[in-house]
């Protein structure tokens, strides 16, 4: 049976700039291409909506606040995460999400950092935060096929020697494209580890369920999914893990996130100035764009314009 999806029509409608410049774009591991309809929907949304700082209290502020809430709900739905168990912290990109975990995790001599050899560079950088707190550092090597080499035995040995701390690995390697076995998550958690999963590459394909694989931390970038906005990422985090985190710094509107009366330091503080990126996020989901598969996975109405 022939596929009814007309890719030539999609390319002509959404990506004609590729033909105009004689380009073949293949670098989807780095960033997805945005479609023309996304740009049009984004521009139209900005033209008809007045957005303000979501930390203020007026109509433009509420417009931003509402869009932030919708974006967070859509993110949780995309990763099949229970809103009662998970929170979404908006960041500039995957690196910023990983850094949030690295600088806030309660590393100590009995809570090591254990990470795979093919991790994101920002996870490798987490060694400095762990080392500053006196935490042991353990690297999980790869085998000849660039897969983790007996990771279950190695994390058990590390827990026996140092204690169980933070295990970090990518669902799909940015280096090799290898998809690691997510059963390692449950194995690690049974040993007492918290798990940080880099979903920057694997998240694009969808189907990653936090009900099935309930990691404590999941990092992603939205531009890997649909290209626009380019400066938008997130940390999806268990509320229980957030409560144990110790954030070392504060930013604007911190009195709302942390409370003047000393609310727990696990509160989630979103990246400021995100309202225009959120508008782009909503435009990607709300228009007849080339992200129809994403819309369907979020439970949103499909758009006949996505398929000819």
Strand order of the largest sheet: 1-7-6-5-4-2-3
Helix-strand pattern? HHHHEHEHEHEHEEHEHHHH
Strand content: 5-15%
Low-confidence stretches: 253-266, 286-308
Taken from the alpha-carbon principal axes, the silhouette is globular
Q: For the terminal residues, how far apart are their CA atoms?
A: 16 Å
The count of helical stretches stands at 13
Largest sheet at a glance? 7 strands, mixed
Strand tally, please? 7
- What percent of the residues sit in helical stretches (DSSP H or I)? 25-40%
Name the average pLDDT: 82
**Alpha-carbon Rg, integer:** 20 Å
Structural class: alpha/beta
In words, what does this structure look like?
With 308 residues, the chain is of the alpha/beta class. The protein is 40% helix and 11% strand. Strands 1-7-6-5-4-2-3 form a seven-stranded mixed sheet, with helices on both faces. Strand 4 (166-170), helix 8 and strand 5 form a beta-alpha-beta unit. It is globular and about 60 Å long.
Relevant terms:
13 helices; 308 residues; globular; seven-stranded mixed β-sheet; disordered C terminus; alpha/beta; 40% helix
Summarize the structure.
With 308 residues, the chain is α/β, with parallel strands linked by helices.
Topology:
Elements: H1 7-14, H2 16-20, H3 36-48, H4 59-78, E1 86-91, H5 94-104, E2 113-116, H6 121-132, E3 137-140, H7 151-162, E4 166-170, H8 183-190, E5 194-198, E6 217-221, H9 223-226, E7 233-238, H10 239-244, H11 254-258, H12 275-286, H13 292-297
Parallel strand pairs: 2-3, 2-4, 4-5, 5-6
Antiparallel strand pairs: 1-7, 6-7
Helix pairs in contact: 3-12, 4-12, 5-6
């Amino acid at each position: 049976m022939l596929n009814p999806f007309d890719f030539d029509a999609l390319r002509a409608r959404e990506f004609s700039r590729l033909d105009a410049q004689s380009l073949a774009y293949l670098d989807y591991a780095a960033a997805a291409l945005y479609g023309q309809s996304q740009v049009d929907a984004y521009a139209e949304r900005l033209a008809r909506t007045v957005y303000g700082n979501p930390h203020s209290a007026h109509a433009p502020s509420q417009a931003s606040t509402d869009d932030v809430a919708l974006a967070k709900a859509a993110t949780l739905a995309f990763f099949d995460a229970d809103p009662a168990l998970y929170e979404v912290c908006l960041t500039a990109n995957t690196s910023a999400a990983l850094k949030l975990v690295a600088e806030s995790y309660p590393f100590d001599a009995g809570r090591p950092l254990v990470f795979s050899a093919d991790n994101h560079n920002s996870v490798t950088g987490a060694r400095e935060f762990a080392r500053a707190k006196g935490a042991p550092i353990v690297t999980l090597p790869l085998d000849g096929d660039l897969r983790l080499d007996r990771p279950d035995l190695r994390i058990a040995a590390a827990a026996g020697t140092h204690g169980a701390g933070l295990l970090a690995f990518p669902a799909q390697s940015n280096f090799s494209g290898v998809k690691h076995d997510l059963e390692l998550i449950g194995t690690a958690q049974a040993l007492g580890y918290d798990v940080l999963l880099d979903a920057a590459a694997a998240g694009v394909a969808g189907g990653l369920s936090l009900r099935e694989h309930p990691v404590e931390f999941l990092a992603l970038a939205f531009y890997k999914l649909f290209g626009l906005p380019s400066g938008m990422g997130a940390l999806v985090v268990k509320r229980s893990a957030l409560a144990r985190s110790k954030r070392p710094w504060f930013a604007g509107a911190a009195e709302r996130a942390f409370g003047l009366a000393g609310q727990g330091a696990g509160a989630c503080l979103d990246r400021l100035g995100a309202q225009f990126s959120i508008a782009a996020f909503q435009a990607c989901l709300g228009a007849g764009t080339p992200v129809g598969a994403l819309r369907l996975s979020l439970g949103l109405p499909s758009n006949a314009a996505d398929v000819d």
